[in-house]
Amino acid sequence: MSFPKKGKFFPKENRYAGNGGNETDGCFVDEIASALRRSLGDSRAGVKTVASWTGANEKTVKNWFAGKYGPSGEHLVALARHSDEVLGTFLAMAGRENLMAATKLVAAERAIAELLVEVRRLNGNSGR
């Protein structure tokens, strides 16, 4: 038996989001939606990419991009694994921006070390 097209969800005044629980806090939903759009744009390709990262249905992912609903914990972890924007947003909402700064510093140090190796390699080859 399936639900009729109308009436399968309670009205939003009751704070029901239609996902088996209470509506997610608007700030969280809006912030994650903004991070997704900054990271991937607001295109079908972005939706498909996020769906492949998380294993979520494309319709669900579209709702995340639109800021209608937020991802569950499992999906949020997958998003943070693949998107620095989502990770940074999550850490900022948790008041842990310093962790993101440390992550960026480590990545910058790694990039500088790789560049230095290449410069030394080029200098060694140019002298021959």
Structural account:
There is one protein chain. Mean pLDDT is 83; it is low at 13-24. Helices cover 66% and strands 0% of the residues. The chain is mostly helical and 128 residues long.
Helices, by number, come to: 6
Shape: elongated
The CATH architecture of the largest domain: Orthogonal Bundle
Helix-strand string: HHHHHH
Classification by helices and strands: mainly alpha
End-to-end C-alpha gap: 79 Å
Query: What's the CATH C level of the largest domain?
Result: Mainly Alpha
List strands and helices in order, with pairings.
Blueprint: H1 26-40, H2 44-54, H3 58-66, H4 73-82, H5 84-93, H6 97-126
Helix pairs in contact: 1-5, 2-3, 4-5, 5-6
Main attributes of the structure:
single chain; about 130 residues; mainly alpha; 434 Repressor (Amino-terminal Domain); 2 domains
Brief overview:
The chain is mainly α.
